[in-house]
Amino acid sequence: MRTDRNAPPRTGWANIVAELYVADLDVSLAFWTDIIGFEIAYRRAEEKFVYLEHPEGQQIMLCQRHGRFETGPMQHPLGQGAMFQIYLRDISSIMTNLTARNWPIYLGPREVWRQTGDRESGQQEVFVQDPDGSPEPRELMEVVTKTQPSEEQWEDLLFAWRVCRHVRSNAIVLARDRATLGIGAGQMSRVDSVRLSIEKAKDARGPDAETLIAGCVIASDAFFPFADGPQAAIEEGATAVIQPGGSKRDAEVIEACDAAGVAMVFTKRRHFRH
User: Fold this and answer.
1) Is the pLDDT of residue 74 over 80?
2) Position with higher pLDDT, 25 vs 143
């Protein structure tokens, strides 16, 4: 559990400290504390702001985006193009944390030597990214069907998409009223994952299952290669679909949803956890 010291940094205030705007403070905070090893010096909960310090003295601030201090248009992911170099005595514990969480590594770990003035300096380095914007914001998604999702459906779609990123591929999530109904995971066939999610929903919900599934949404962690996946859920009453898109047969899947009057959203990014 992360605890707050509710006090200034132990090593005193750094002369320059970056403040990062993030889309989801809790998600980014877990990355900086649980993986990179920072601690919470203090927070202002009402502002969704935290001041972090590392035991070796590095400091950084995180703040969930609130609309103030934005000098121009903000595009997701926030902070693109910015890179922070953090020197630590040892990266082995970070590598252990990254591996344990199956965290994507952009580059490394590797040993590099660079010219620094009249000498060369060597170091071990690894490039990783803050998870800001995972899952992706609605503004970057695209409704590809004639039918538009209602606001209630949008809430369920985004909820299901968020759950989906934690499920082993091939992953399917059925959801309604911001609650999971059924999950299909680890199947070789995506349509089999759809069928498994329906079966799990019926087993878990008993006599209420039919009513709940009728009107649910379905999320897929990667694209549907054929229309049979969404069709299996639509036949049970699903009314909206969210998936990355990108299949050679996207047009067929869209056509199937249009024929049923079902809304479908492309996230343009897959999760695909193994």
Assistant:
1) no
2) 143
